[in-house]
Amino acid sequence: MDINQKNIKEIIKMQRGSRIMCKASEIGKIIVNKCLQNGIEINTQKLQKLLVLVQVECIKDSGFPLFSEDIRIWDCGVAIKEVDEDFRQFGTQFTTEFNENIVLLDSEMQYIDNIINTYGSLTASQLNALPINQKVISMGIKHENETYAHVTAERMTEEFKNDKANRLLKTFKTKYHY
After folding, report:
1. Residues 25, 70: contact at Cβ < 8 Å?
2. How far apart are CA 147 and CA 158, in angstroms?
3. What is the pLDDT of residue 127?
4. From the centroid of its chain, how far is CA 98?
5. Which of the residues in the chain have pLDDT under 50?
6. What secondary structure does DSSP assign to 65-133, as a single string?
7. What is the spatial distance between Cα 74 and Cα 59, in angstroms, rounded to a whole number?
8. Distance CA 164, CA 144 (A)
9. 82-131: per-residue pLDDT in tens?
10. What is the H or E stretch that residue 30 is in?
11. I need a labelling partner for 170 at 20 to 30 A (CA). Which of 30, 84, 112, 176 fits?
12. What Rg, from alpha-carbon coordinates, does the chain have?
């Protein structure tokens, strides 16, 4: 880890207390609230797909995952077990906002806003069919005696953290005709 990454992690720790990452369920509550505030229908399956997109967006831009939970590859596509367990009590369709104050960095809130603005109108099936979710599905590893394949936050970080650098390099090469 270079000094810049270390400094970024320390700044995040200071702003969040001692923890670096959020819980996926916390991010899920923010997504549900933002969708409902914007008149966007949201159910548990759609929430799961949006969470994965937010995780990928965060890794691509910052080089760090937003939450540490594994992404599971279920019959219905990508999902996070802990989110499924935490939100099960609310049913499948969300109609009421959560009344919690979860602190995020401005950039993290921007990732959520970007994903909702870009993909919020899609259904869970449409979200699952997106190439980025299909890429996450293809990354799933199923260990012996496990029912479902999964992708760790570390694996996702390895896969997606260089996307920003690659985009910048491609832009540079295009601009300067390399």
Report:
1. no
2. 24
3. 94
4. 19
5. 1, 18-19, 178
6. -SB-PPEEEETTEEE-HHHHHHHGGG-SB--S---------HHHHHHHHHHHHHHTTS-HHHHHHSHHH
7. 22
8. 34
9. 999 999 888 888 999 998 778 788 888 999 999 999 999 999 999 999 99
10. helix 24-37
11. 112
12. 17
Which own/partner contact pairs does 149-154 have at CB distance under 8 Å and 24+ positions apart? 149/72, 149/73, 150/70, 150/71, 150/72, 150/73, 151/70, 151/71, 151/73, 152/70, 153/21, 153/55, 153/65, 153/67, 153/68, 153/69, 153/70, 154/65
Residue with tokens 């549900």: 32
Contacts of 28 (CB under 8 A, 6+ apart): 47, 51, 83, 86, 87
For residue 65, the one-letter residue type is P
Neighbours of 23 (CB within 10 A): 18
| Nearest-10 crossing angle of helices 44-62, 153-160 | 50
The position carrying tokens 């969300």 is: 94
Q: Flag whether the pTM goes above 0.85.
A: no
